[in-house]
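Job type: complex structure
Entries:
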Amino acid sequence: MNNREIAELFEKVAYLLEIRGDNIHRILSYRRAGETIRDVSQDLSELHEAGQLTSISGIGKTLAEKIAEMLETGRLEFYERLVVEIPESILDLMRVEGLGAKRVKLFYDKLGITTLDGLQEAAENGRLRELPKMGAKSEAKILKAIESLKKHGDGRVLLGTALPIAETILAELRQLPVVTRADIAGSVRRRKETIGDIDLLVAASDAEVVMDHFCGLELAADVALRGPTKSRIVLDNGVGVDLRVLPSENWGTLLSYFTGSQAHNVRLRELAKKKGLSLNEYDLSAVSGNAPPILCETEEAVYTALDLPYVVPTLREDRGEIEAALEGRLPQLVQLTDMRSDLHMHTTWSDGKASILEMAQTAQANGLQYIVITDHSYSLGIANGLDASRLRQQAEAIREANEVIGPDFEIWHGTEMEIRADGTLDFPDEVLAELDFVIAAVHTALKQPREKITERILGAIRNPHVDMIAHPTGRLIGRRDGADVDLEAIFAAAVDHKTILELNANPHRLDLQDTHVRRALEIGVRIAINTDAHHPDQLSFTHFGIATAQRGWATASHIVNSWLPSEMRTFLMSK
DNA sequence: GCCGTTTTCGGCCCGACTGTTTTCAGTCG
């Protein structure tokens, strides 16, 4: 079993224990273990072999034994015993919004409901309302939630989808005269790669006006709840948007609280507690005595009150940032303004939508100093890939574009060359030698067994002409899992051969992902943040890559795009 | 089930909203 499968099984165990009515803290241990394991970039099997499973925070003796059992046997006896007691299909019911363990258990115990369809039928036939604490309204809500679940799934969307929506709504609310402050909070602010709910905070002299406007937004397909300080609308795509209208004198604690993550908040509260303070969304108050509560108008003030340096939202995941803050070793994270290049983009020569010059001019307007044009190579026929002859014609076109754009900007010539299914490359060394920068990538046969696909990529890394591996796992978030590659081996080889690995900034990819970046940097891999733009507009994807790099604790010195053209040349010469 | 500068026991965050109650349980974040 791999990390993801182990994480999922622990999360299922947590739900089953919850339905069974087990101790809440035991349940949370399993749930947190699942969440933590999703964040671990190293393979659990490696940690197991090294006897280091319990070095993962939240994994103690018992859970380490269970992980070992799953790794060695591919099964978890504890889970198998649980599903004898409670049918596995019941877990589907927990995915219905508004249903938790208590009601799911009630439906099972009293009506024998074990499936989503069974629940829908019972609701349609008015059988749920006969149960204690249930009524017609609850029944209708459940039907609606089932419909939404069947239509939209769990409703997680890409950051690239959620962020523009959040910014649009925020901009509209800011136009209301009563609004004095407005911010995005939650996972959008932390720039998580996928988003469950959009969280917005507003300070206003009249909450009612804001709520009216919010619930009446054209985007709102449905108003899920409406209170004096909190409302929630649901959009056509199934995404929920929560709005809280709150006072501004304690904006710092509010923004901090609603930005999360929950795990980070828990750590902050523990720190507060050790100082004899209680931290909630409203203030920091003394646990005993009658000192007046501390109001924080800024987040900086919250961290200062806890004797911590400010922790930026992209780090707030309880992945060691609290410890680093306490010890004064928070990283100086890479910023958008550090970027001087984009090393991966396409033009009309292959499957891009704009000319070399259009891409270059947009990149220059975005503040870059140089770019590399990297159209596809010929075996990716679907993308109109270039053969050696067209590649040489393109070299001429790039020379011409350089003349037009003038001396303040450089257009380099490169390729995004296929690593074919058999591991061979699309161009021979003598063709690659003519290029300024060579990317190699896999786009096909991503389902190959681990050893085979890993060896394909390792082969490319070992080729002295290959400067970078693009989107190393090939994942498309929510659509396609990445290839089963041995990233540890790839990171080690990338260091040995001075091969750059890409953090692809396209919001569908974000590959390497944040946890991979973190691990790669520990090993000493050089990372590039590139847009892989197929259109000038997509050159603005860089900020998604920056956010992901920050979530991977990257500083400017880790990111090769911070180098001057001359520095990059020197590096490439040294390979 | 985890964890420890209150360390091997006893904590483990807590407030808003809804629907069903007649004072609160369930769910969510």
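Summary: Residues 3-20 of chain A form the longest helix (18 residues). The mean pLDDT of chain A is 93.
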